## 1
Amino acid sequence: MKIIRAKDYRDMSRKAANIISAQIIMKPDCVLGLATGSTPVGAYEQLVEWYNKGDLDFAGVTTVNLDEYRGIAKEHPQSYYRFMQEKLFSKVNIRPERTFIPDGMEADAEKACRAYNEIIEKIGGIDMQLLGLGHNGHIGFNEPGTAFEAQTHLVELTESTKKANQRFFASDEDVPHQAYTMGIKTIMQAKRIVVVVSGRDKAEILKAAVEGPISPAVQASVLQLHNHVTIVADEEALSCLP
Ligand code: F6R
């Protein structure tokens, strides 16, 4: 596990974007696993900036996102589909048909998950997976206790995750309770993994993920078993680590 220390959020975003852009330059037809949430936003902005300067080309890139709320339509302002359109896809030359996100409107969970697993298999797996870190140690929406063997599955979001998501919804009742998420097994099969972490509020869980016992109680602790993980974290997030 390699830890890259960044000064602050801006620096973390730049460093993470550098790693992602190196991946695209080295392998223009790469498969990127992408995350939503607030942490990767700065990195996406940086990638868009470099694209606008002519330094990056997304024409050959394929993306698979980690997760999507269940029961939320693509057009919903808080869908992860919409998030990705707004933050990245509509601003670069990626081909829309090469961007994949679980289908939140597929009510048949088994069907939705099987379809997503098949997509990931068909595109040949993930070259580089970008992850954020949840306050309870989740990666994707793999909540504490989930089996590490899981592939794409339906999750009941925990109270802490729903609480963290409240800020994006008009009222508490609007916060979704369920999501489809890529499983730990699939994440661990990515050739490289980049985790972005920012802020004092992530310091304890980052320490637990990096130094604590490998346990489904802290899903991100499984990353200790992957041989190509880079954590890009700012000083606040690293404040509990030496
Ligand atoms: C997002 C995702 C989540 C977030 C995590 C951190 O696609 O899968 O695991 O990465 O909840 O979210 P932020 O970055 O908002 O703190």
Note: The beta strands are 2-6, 31-34, 62-65, 67-69, 99-100, 128-131, 153-156, 178-181, 192-197, 229-234.
## 2
Amino acid sequence: MRFAKLLVLVAVLGVACRSDTTLSSPSAGASAAASAVPATAATAAPAAAGTATAITLDCVASAAPLVELTEGPYYKAGPPQRTSLMQSGLAGTPLTLTGAVVTRSCRPLANAKLDFWQADGNGNYDNSGYTLRGWQLTDAQGQYRLETVIPGLYPGRTEHIHVKVTPAGGQTYTTQLFFPGVAQNTSDSIYSGAMLVKLDRSTNPIAATFLFVVNLP
Ligand code: FE
């Protein structure tokens, strides 16, 4: 079976990613120490040495596509294009979300549109402006990076980030991302365990990763 891994290095100043079928170490989970970064990956991002947290995103050729979930009532058309949703006075714990958009066969998709929206750390959406709303395109390696905050709870909902994923020229997949270890996950009827980010709370900002697999060959 064909098997490939995307190794994402999450660092304060940047992200380095590579697809490499020769990497043999198993997924280290969300909290791998920097010392566990394979030498091949470390050389790919020398500037990040000592500050990077390695999160391995396994991409298996038979990977199931992302689970589509309801848009909910708070999407607002026309958000700005930006990779950072941070602004002064924003409530919430800083979070950097990184990853990639790939097909079922792990083919990275450049110029895929990711349109994110979410509540602030107090569970409030900005329905009059565009706070915590923004879209971006994946880079040539299919990667994305979002600077934001961990969303808060609001009635009936666990912590979640909404996103619309649109491959170039393709259909839009609407879904939500969730966070591991949140008690309210089990009582949220929309929650999907397939849409859990990998999380490393040891970094500042907290680092999350998610690999969006779209239903393309
Ligand atoms: Fe919501």
Note: The chain is about 5% helix and 35% strand.
